[in-house]
Amino acid sequence: MRSDVWPGLYFTLGVRHDLNGDFKDATTWRSTASWQLPAAIRLHGSFGTGVSDPTFFDRFGFFPGQFIGNENLSPEKAKGWDLGLEKSWLDEKLVFDLTWFSSTLRDEIVSVFDATSFLSSVENQIGKSDRRGVELSLRYQPHDNLEIFGSYTWLDAEEPDQSREVRRARHQASLSGTWRFLSQRGSLTASAQYNGDQDDLDFSVFPAQRVVLDDFVLMTLAARYRLFDGVDAVARLENALDQSFQTVLGFNTPGLGAFAGIRAAF
């Protein structure tokens, strides 16, 4: 549902009700607001709630000698809000946005380790975890065929005991540029993503100890060329710098990858 309350002022409201055979039925909602002001300034914000059910693997997964599921899990429950300011220049060719956000998660599903059976499992965490931070973004289009986008996020994520939440990098940033050529029939894109260091838990010892996973930069190169209407030739390099990194302790991630193909739309 959308409402135009005042010239330049808009509200939206969405409500969702889920009928669930395994858990309690859930009603969630989200509301947004946008206010266009003079001098190409726009205020925006949102508030909402959400529910996430445990996965099948969380409840029933089993790896002999490693992991056992937990049938008694409850859904995670979240609520959050954000408030931001957007400013544009040069007929919206240069757009800057600053957003402050905060969210709370209850009954978070977390990994646990049983020193008696030497099995890992999952359980609902008692209390609530909080996430708050600031996101900056900048989009610049100096030419009809060139677009540059950059962003930075600072995140403060805390466990119920106010310790730093694991697997949540405090600093993240990205930078990308796209050049279109031959009347925008083809395009070249280069992007880089930075993920700051983050904590994780080492379950190979008991009790589990906190460790720090190193920061890393991922670069992606992509190309597209329209052969004819609805058919494109595409190619991309992922992790072009062949970085070795982990986002979960003990689980390596793919190195350099090259892909090419044909994409058709009908």
TrEMBL record:
**SUPFAM superfamilies in alphabetical order:** Porins
Query: Which branch of life, at top level?
Result: Bacteria
Q: What is this protein called?
A: TonB-dependent receptor-like beta-barrel domain-containing protein
An example Gene Ontology biological process: siderophore transmembrane transport
The Swiss-Prot or TrEMBL record describes its family as follows:
Belongs to the TonB-dependent receptor family.
The topology of this chain with respect to the membrane is: Multi-pass membrane protein
InterPro entries linked? Beta-barrel_TonB (IPR000531), Beta-barrel_TonB_sf (IPR036942), TonB-dep_rcpt-like (IPR039426)
Any Pfam family from its record, for instance, is TonB_dep_Rec_b-barrel
Please state the protein's primary subcellular location.
Answer: membrane
Q: Where in the cell is it found?
A: Cell outer membrane
Q: Name one GO molecular function term.
A: siderophore uptake transmembrane transporter activity
- Keyword tags: Cell outer membrane, Membrane, Receptor, Signal, TonB box, Transmembrane, Transmembrane beta strand, Transport
Q: Which residues form the TonB-dependent receptor-like beta-barrel domain?
A: 7-232
GO cellular component terms, A-Z: cell outer membrane
